[in-house]
Amino acid sequence: MFKFFSNLAHSASELLAPNLRPEEELFLQWHNLVKELKLRKGANIPVDDTDVPLRLQWIFNLIQQDTPDCIVSSISAPNDSLTISPCLEFVMRYKVFDWLVALAKTDKPAGIKSYVLFFLTNFVRTPSTIQIIPKSFMYKPLSRLIMACGRSSCSPWDREEMAFLRAVVDVLAKDQCLANLFLHNAPHDAVDRTESDVRSVDLPDCILPENEDQNRYINVENSRKERKRSSSSFTLNGENNTSDSFTFPLLTSLLRSVLNPDPVVSAQAREATIQLLRCREPVVCHCIAQSRLLEDALLPHFSKLYSCIPATLEAVDVLLRHDFGDLQHVVKSFVREMRVIAFDLLNAMVQKPTLVFVEKTMLQFLDSRLYIRKDQRIHDTMWNTNMAEATDRADMFRILFPTSAKSCTVMEEDRDNQNYLRESYYSIEWLNQRCTNLKWPTFGPIPACNVLLAEESAFFDGQPFNEGPLLRVLFHYLSNLFVQPYLLNLRVTGILSKLCLIPHPTLGEYLLDPTVPLAPQSTSLYRSLVSLVQKMDEYARHTPGFRDKIVTTRQLIRDNQWSQLEKDDENVMLCAVVTLEEFCKELAARTFVRFNSSLHV
Q: What is the reported pTM?
């Protein structure tokens, strides 16, 4: 009861106090917080029975309210200098974060660690934090707190520790250079403190010297330069700064948390660890590779996931399947990552195709030419030297995209066509030379015997055409072009465009010849594009100002601002339309160069 009236009196007195500037209010709150802690020092009073949680919340609110001034000032400051707000200047000068971390590591008064973790987690998640993390008043106390996390299992603050670690990992994902700041050099680094050092720390004296000049702003060097300097200090050549002498406490704390009996903490720790493993900083990568806990913590998790994969699941299902049962949320995240990796791997393999890759993924399914409607008896369709016929086939791709939906002018379109033709010519010439030893029939008619054998084959009897898993996956993603992210669409169309360059006549006929009469249930690149254009026409008719929107979208993509266009379904659709427009022009150039053999003489 006494505590209630005491808190009420404090609150009333502060409400009646005159208005203060943010830094003055911050000083007052910090002074009252230290005073409260000194009064309770040595007493076994839980932190919930004090004013400390309320004071911490007020301090955080004051710093957060003062943050926008810091951002605006840093943008307008000359010479790329970073301007620190008055509240952050106070935090830096009086080492507020250092003292909070010291209190958290001792957990005195009892329960304060949870509040400090909550305070620092919210602060790290503030958008402007990434600008000030390279400052020693920020990253050093964070490093000490990181080292203290995950040391005990089943503690009351396990989930708060995990939230704090994930917030740090999210910041490092935005700027990987910052990871170097959280490396620990045991013989030389003074970041870590032993438990006895922390317990002997006295509470700070917050009274400002009367004659000290209190600058409201301190200009310091730009954070990027400091990050660069910090990164360069971790050289691999010196005797004292070899990468073997460094450890990565953030990874260690996460791996300890992976073994936590709390399933929520363990799952979040695994996700954060996998996210942290994407860091490409050299010394950080070396520390990760040398970690002894990594194998013990993650291998059982991966083994468990592997055991949950159905025995009948094919590799291609990783790209196509969406329903994976009760491990579903974990597997979906895994599948999303696998899709990106798989497309990047395919792109690398398609750029330098090998005989095994082309035959096993495509030719063994296309050589029989079962995609052709057999009543036509077309045995030698293409690969002539007639430029007019090559132009006709190329125009089928070029005019496929309607003029009313184009996002570029006639002059821009002509320029793009010339660029695509030039790039196609040099790419095909390079691949022709590379694939010479594969003994493929680069030009000339396709042998008629393939079709005749297919007609007599038992495989053809009642069986639909099977384009193979690779092309089936690519056509699947191409058909979903209008609902997929821009970067994924670029990967899909880029791989298909590179496949069109491979100098094999059957592959070229299937992908690039729109005049081939296809069997009713056969899928082809041209049919997929026709379906997409029909969907786009339907969408354009029901979208007011479609042409203006598509022109604006093209300009934003050209200015490398496409990330702003993925916030809603309409912008995703508009980005996909621009991608489809360019893809049709690129395929037209591929078709003209591939079918006009006179260009290769």
A: 0.52
